[in-house]
Structures are given as structure tokens and as C-alpha cells.
Amino acid sequence: MTILAVPRVAVIVVAAGSGTRLSGAGPKAFVGLGEHSILRHALRGVFAGPPAQVVVVAPSDRVGDARTEADEAAGSRGDLVTVVAGGQTRQASVAAGLGAVWPDVQTVLVHDAARALTPPDVFARVISAVASGQDAVLPVLPVVDTLKRVAAQTVVAAVDRADLASAQTPQGFRRDILDLAYRDATAEFTDDAALVQAAGFPVFTVAGDERAFKITTPSDLERAESLVSPITPVHPAVRSAAPRVGMGTDVHAFGGAGTLWLAGVEWPGERGLHGHSDGDAVAHAIVDAVLAAAGLGDIGTQFGTEHPEYAGAHAAAFLGRTRELVEAAGYRIGNVSVQVQANRPRFAARRAEAEQVLSAALGAPVAVSATTTDGRGFTGTGDGGAAFAVAVVLPL
Ligand code: CTP
Ligand code: MG
């Protein structure tokens, strides 16, 4: 069994705002986006990233609702979630979240729930920049519009956009620096990077992502809706009391960028696999098997290019969403068996870890086996890897 250590990273998700520019009809975090709330989407992105304590900062009268949303998004990782009440300003809400961060945490990320579709790789970039020694890390996008300074409806000056960037979240900090900057803050800032910079610390930038845009106005919500448009079954599965079985396979060539991600875990030193997302053939075969069992089409139907939030995503994001789709269709996952055919990596030493990660994400037991193919075929020559999965689903 794998014992998970207390995480060294915490993500504070601020969701205590009132959302006046969106509609004024209730706190923004609980406004619907597709099948879920804005908060639930934001938390899905957080839980698809590296393991972390997750502190949700909610409006004081919605702490219970936020707890429910967080528990559903967390799945088996519910013990990593803390929910606290926010304050009158964003800064007061972050301060409340900071007060709930566990003592062992060394890196704190602060994320706007309103940036609900932020992909997991932005979290990973920010965390790794802090881990490599930066005090404060800000994801940014280049400014694309030509900018003007305007007064009384008249252009006063052109503004050179070359040295401007727009700031996003999650913003990451060394925990001691963020604590210090918050303790000494005397003015209000609109983000944490500004507060930390005012306290005299340098802020390093990394690439943000278009999908991390902040849902502020009704047209932002429309844009977000178009990215999460409801995914409908290809054909209604014939309902029966009997279990349903599905199979899935996936093949990827070795030679992809970066290190290998396979069976939901990273394999440092092993060659990566090509593919949309991280090329994790094991996760993709499982998704196909589970979707097929529930009559929900296949990975292309549910996670194709029209769902850009899954580009670059790891297994947990795909499997978590697959579980939601299956449950929405009226099934629960019984179990999954998946076999890898590849010369490398060697699974024996990490089988238990892979099974634990995959099972946690899917909410059902996943058994992983691996074999070589006696030097035959593309898996035998080491050109690529294949995965074959079988899944059972049961009516709810
Ligand atoms: N926020 C917060 N506590 C506050 C104000 C804002 O936790 N007192 C959070 C929001 O929930 C949001 C993020 O900070 O996730 C960014 O704020 P913004 O987009 O301005 O959200 P709202 O304040 O809710 O919206 P508005 O300004 O339109 O009222
Ligand atoms: Mg606001």
C-alpha cells in the first residue's frame, strides 16, 4: 500500500465574491456552468493537478454548500479539503484561507474560483517555478490588443504593449513570504502578486493559458459555457439490471516530448509517448472501456478537440470526468482490468502506486498488469506501447 505524505503544497481557491458584474443573482461561485457550478469546475482543475491541500474560501452563508461541492470534486481525496468563510474583499478572503493552511505546507497557490477552466498544467508550471527557487510566481498572457490611454473619450497616448502582460491565477508563493506580506499589508491589492511585490519581493512570470480567463461578465459565462457544452450519449444505453461490459485499447509511439506519463504516474528517465494530452495509453484505454460499457461512445466523442480543457491533461482529469459521465448516465463503475504491452517501463515496482492513483481517480478498483511481447511487433521492438482494458459498469 502507498502511504501518501502530507502535501507540501496548498491551493487556496477564493470563491467568496458576490459576482455583481455577472448577474448580481447570488454568489458567482455557485452560478451554473454546464452541468455544475463554477466552483465545481474550478475544483476539478485543482484536483487534476499535483496533490495539494485545498482550502476553499466561501461566502460565510454558503460554507456548507462549498463543502458539498468540494467533497464531490475531491472524490477519495476529501481529507485534503478545508473550507473557510471569506471576507469583504478578495484580500480578506485570501487572508482567511491562509489562516487555514497546514503547518507543513511550504508552497501556497492562490487561485480565483472564477477562473474555472484553468488547465492543470498551469498549476504544474507555477508549482515547479516555486520549487526551483522563485519567491513568487505569476502566470501571464501577452497583451494582444493595441492599447491607448484615454481621458474624456479622447486618446491621450498610445501605450506600448510589448512590456505589458495580463495577470492570471493560480499565483504561487513561498509560504513564509506570503504569510509575511499578508501580515504586514496596509493597502488593498487586486491580486496577491501585487501585494507580495509591494512587500519588496520579486515576482517571476510563467506562461498562463487562454482557458484560465476569469468569468466576470455574462459574455465570459457564455464563452465558458461553449467550452463545457453538455456531452450527450451517442445512443441511449439500453437499461437493464445486468452488469454491462466494455473494452478499450490504445496505442502510442515512443518519442513524445517530456518524460513518460503512463498509468497515471510519471516515470522520470523513461521516454515519453506521443499523443493528444500526455499520451497515457493506459488511461485512454480505461476511458474507452468504461465509456463503452455505459454506452457513452468513446474518448473522441467525450474528450475530442472541442474540449480543449483536456489538452495536456493527465489521467486523473480524464478518469474523474469519465466517472461523472457514467454516473450521470445512471451507472457506477464495478471494476477495471488493464494490461500494458511494452518493453518499458517495468511495472513491478510501481504497480501498486499506479493502481492506487487510477482507482482513486475512477472511484473503482483498477488492476494493472504488464507484459512484453517476446520481441515481436511494434511493442517488441520498443517503438511503442499498447494498453488493453476491460470495464464493468452496474446500474445505479
Ligand atoms: N473573491 C473572494 N472574496 C471577495 C471578493 C472576491 O473570495 N470578497 C473571489 C471571487 O470569488 C473570485 C475572485 O476572488 O473567485 C476574483 O474576484 P472577482 O472576479 O472580482 O469576483 P466577484 O468579486 O465575485 O465579482 P464582482 O467583482 O463582479 O462582484
Ligand atoms: Mg470582485
Structure in words:
The strands form 4 sheets. Strands 1, 4, 5, 6, 7, 10, 11 and 12 form an 8-stranded mixed β-sheet that branches. Strands 14-13-17-15-16 form a 5-stranded mixed β-sheet. The protein has 2 domains: 9-223, Alpha-Beta Complex (Spore Coat Polysaccharide Biosynthesis Protein SpsA, Chain A); 230-395, 2-Layer Sandwich (60s Ribosomal Protein L30, Chain: A). 30% of the residues lie in helices and 29% in strands. Strand 13 and strand 14 (265-273) form a beta hairpin. It has 12 helices and 17 strands. By secondary structure, it is α/β, with parallel strands linked by helices. Helix 1 crosses helix 2 (63-74), helix 5 (175-184) crosses helix 6 and helix 8 (281-293) packs parallel to helix 10.
Write the layout of secondary structure elements.
Blueprint: E1 9-14, E2 32-33, E3 36-37, H1 38-47, E4 53-58, H2 63-74, E5 81-85, H3 90-98, E6 107-112, H4 120-131, E7 136-142, E8 147-151, E9 154-159, E10 165-167, E11 171-174, H5 175-184, H6 192-198, E12 204-207, H7 218-227, E13 244-262, E14 265-273, H8 281-293, H9 299-303, H10 315-328, E15 331-341, H11 351-362, E16 366-371, H12 377-381, E17 384-395
Parallel strand pairs: 1-4, 1-6, 4-5, 7-12, 15-16
Antiparallel strand pairs: 2-3, 6-11, 7-10, 7-11, 8-9, 13-14, 13-17, 15-17
Helix pairs in contact: 1-2, 5-6, 8-10, 10-11
Cytidine-5'-triphosphate binds at residues 14-22, 28-29, 57, 86-90, 93, 112-114, 214, 216.
Reading off the top of the CATH hierarchy, the class of the largest domain is best stated as Alpha Beta
Q: If classified by CATH, what would the architecture of the largest domain be? A: Alpha-Beta Complex
Instruction: Give start-end ranges of low-pLDDT stretches.
Output: none
What's the number of helices?
A: 12
Specify Rg, calculated over alpha carbons: 22 Å
Q: Are any ligands bound, and if so which? A: cytidine-5'-triphosphate, magnesium ion
Helix content: 25-40%
Structural class: alpha/beta
Which superfamily, in CATH terms, is the homologous superfamily of the largest domain? Spore Coat Polysaccharide Biosynthesis Protein SpsA, Chain A
- Alpha-carbon distance between the two ends: 29 Å
Proportion in β-strands = 25-35%
